[in-house]
Specification:
single chain, 396 residues, alpha/beta, Rossmann fold, 2 domains, 9 strands, globular
Length: 396
């Protein structure tokens, strides 16, 4: 999700009236650091300096940015998918808005798919995800943005692409580290937490929400979660893209390849790539991994054996690995907004529809479905952001 898609989000924020009341705030003792390792101030910008840092994009936001920011790189302890303790990183952005005296909410922003490490939030590059976090912060949020495992301080490790537990763990521990820092520095926070993300970020957000509700509900006052265009129904996605076909977009294919490579590694399937992909594609993927760019429907890239096993459900080990990452069938406690474009050829909208249907079937009454007619993966981002703002505002 790139910064240009925040344009209409920002407009609506400034047209809306936010009353971040502290009536529901709670007072907690300052705990000793549990996961926070260090926080480094990367930049401190006034409003004018932030606009300069935005470069060519500044004109889109000059009328709307309300103040400056402090940009921190947070390093924190978490665990990799094999249980090894590692030190991951992320961005924490503290707004400095003139005449802002009310406590501010904390937003956890889970970024979408990125193929370059330098786009990760904690680098705060002009075209990266840290810029998005900074723009959001100037509008009245403390923003926590995990890099995820595989980026930032863990860029020597493979990214846990579309892996439920890997994304949720890194995001939750980043949120814990952000909370520790906020309390240590006595930052004016109202103890309310909002979650949001689109694409891989939508999947990561729903995985994080589920993990908090099931394992850490006493740690955070979750107010709302907004998930956009995530592949929550991994089983159906795998079967559909592998058997029926796909858009043929080379970048889309790279993402699907990345999922297979990630699951093969994490679930210790450790197969030769020719078991998944035809030649010459297998050799290309072996060389370039997720950075490979192969055009054509995805079902023409995978091996005949894999295609047949998808049809017959005969590859139990792979099917179980995929199923372990399904996050669509559960009952959320937090108000949840699910947004998706109906013409999305990258992440099919059945992911969101089946999630909504399953949640309602389990008795959820606080889940809202926002299907964008004829919206594709890119064009639906504006609607996602506008809907997110409204949803957050009504769940203060």
């Amino acid at each position: 999700m790139k910064i240009k898609y925040f344009k209409y989000f920002i407009v609506l924020i400034n047209l809306s009236v936010f009353v971040w009341s502290c009536d529901n705030s709670t007072t907690e003792p300052n705990p000793q650091p549990v996961v926070l390792v260090k926080a480094t101030l990367v930049h401190e910008y006034t409003k004018e300096q932030l606009l300069t840092a935005l470069g060519s994009q500044a004109s889109d936001y000059a009328l709307f940015i309300r103040g400056g920011v402090k940009q921190y790189k947070i390093v924190y302890k978490t665990k990799n998918t094999d249980g090894t303790e590692i030190q991951a990183s992320g961005a924490l952005v503290i707004p400095n808005i003139p005449n802002q005296t009310d406590p501010l909410p904390l937003a956890s922003y889970q970024h979408g798919t990125i193929f370059s490490d330098t786009e990760a939030p904690s680098y705060f590059n002009a075209e990266g995800e840290g810029t998005l976090a900074s723009v959001l912060a100037t509008l009245g949020y403390i923003v926590s943005a995990p890099d995820y495992i595989g980026y930032g301080s863990t860029n020597n490790l493979p990214h846990t692409y579309e892996h439920r537990e890997g994304l949720a763990n890194a995001s939750l521990d980043m949120l814990r580290a952000a909370k520790e820092f906020i309390q240590q520095e006595k930052i004016n926070w109202n103890n309310k937490v909002f979650l949001g993300g689109y694409s891989e970020g939508g999947y990561a957000t729903l995985a994080l929400q589920k993990k908090i509700e099931e394992e850490a509900s006493g740690e955070f006052n979750l107010r709302a979660s907004s998930c956009g265009a995530g592949a929550y129904n991994k089983t159906l996605s795998f079967k559909t893209i592998g058997s029926i076909g796909s858009s043929g977009n080379a970048t889309h294919n790279a993402s699907y390849i990345w999922v297979i490579l990630t699951y093969d590694r994490i679930y210790k399937l450790n197969r030769d790539l020719t078991s998944y992909f035809k030649e010459p594609y297998a050799s290309q993927i072996q060389k370039d991994k997720q950075n490979v760019r192969i055009s054509g429907s995805f079902n023409t890239i995978i091996s005949d054996a894999l295609k047949q096993s998808i049809v017959n459900d005969s590859d139990t080990a792979l099917a179980n690995a995929v199923k372990d990452n399904d996050i669509f069938d559960w009952k959320p406690k937090t108000p949840t907004l699910l947004t998706h474009g109906t013409a999305d050829t990258y992440v099919p909208s059945f992911n969101t529809q089946t999630a909504y249907d399953a949640m309602v079937k389990r008795g959820a009454t606080n889940v809202k479905l926002n299907l964008i007619t004829n919206g594709d993966h890119g064009s639906s981002i504006d609607d996602y952001l506008l809907s997110t703002l409204t949803f957050f505002a009504t769940n203060q």
